[in-house]
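Project standup — Tuesday

K.O.: blocked on the structure for the chain from last sprint. Re-posting the sequence here as requested.
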Amino acid sequence: MARQKLVVGTYGDINCTQRANGTWLARARYCDVDGVVREYRKSGETKNKARANLKAFFVEHTGTFGDGAIAPDDTVQELLDLWFAKMEKADGSPNSETLELYRYHLRWVLDSDKTEHPLGAYQLRHVRPVIIQAALDSAGVSADMRKRIRSVLVRAFNMAIFHEALNGNPATAVPSVPVPKVKKKPVAVEDLDAVRAAIREWANAERRNGPKSVDLPDIVDMLIATGMRICELLALRWSDIELTAPPARRDDETWFPWLMVNGQITSKGKRVDYGKTHAAIRPTALPDWAVAILRRRKLEQPPNDIDAVFASRNGTWHIPGNVQSRLWHIRQLDEYADIAALSDVSPHSFRRTVATEIDEVYDADAAKDQLGHTSKTVTERHYINRRLVVPDYRAATERLAPRTEPTDDPAIGP
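H.V.: unblocked you, prediction finished:
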């Protein structure tokens, strides 16, 4: 009788033999994922232990069809290292700044000082959804951070599946915590001057000790004038700005002052010639009051070797995080507690103000273009804060009024 053909993922009869040294050897044929039947062996001190060891191997065995880039015995840390290495080289992958942010987020589940259950040393074959959830729970991260970490782990484990190191993705089964959808508000137009005054007062060291932060008021004004991201504004060079009409357009009444957004400053203070998205590289018109600010800076600012509009005292690029920290510090000061608009102000607050005003004067598409978004949905959902408008359709509903005046005691028929 012919031997029955094995199905992929199954094994045949286990045969055990005793060796000369007294240990036992269990062996059986196993059909791997590539359809090839191979013989595997495991030993043990007794016949039952050898059989159990072989069965345990088959339970965890995922076959030999993979390309060897990553294996079930490799650790989560090794998987993530490989994933980041591939992302750095792949076309269309996140930029280096975003990848650095991903690494920062993953510290919460990899470092033993961040979580009681670090994932890094786990072999891939042993990672289960409950293990990932334990790492996230003990890290105590916010719902938003939990979502970001889970997203990166899902992508990394998908790569492990592609290389046949895993059959399933343990990260996808981890429950996602809904992120509260609280839409952050822009700084209201009527509050802008109070916010400007407080920032200018603090920056000029009128209410504090220490060096002045002379660039901060102009940085805030330019954020309000353009709606640029803080990393984009700090990357602005004088060569990116056209404040005076070129000779060929001096008689052109359609010309107006403008600048080109064509780079950003990374968290480490390096200028790069790409934006957050392809739509981030864009021209932006300048209002007259912003032109006056730039012309004043052009005259007063000491020259620097990097052609920066906003250069530090050392002649280097300002770091976005430092600007955010200064605004955060101002928000904490008791002397400005009466300015409600300062309570949660950030560089992005002014970006929302610009989006809201452009939407009111023009439309959401114009706001999208000004902010450098690829989708109008993002602009409307996160940046535009439309005022409540009560639609007046009474001309139609008035026609539905009762024909006769109702009485206080209507007659009831028999």
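K.O.: great, moving the ticket to review. The beta strands are 15-18, 24-31, 37-44, 241-242, 258-261, 264-265, 271-272, 282-285. The first strand starts at residue 15 and ends at 18.
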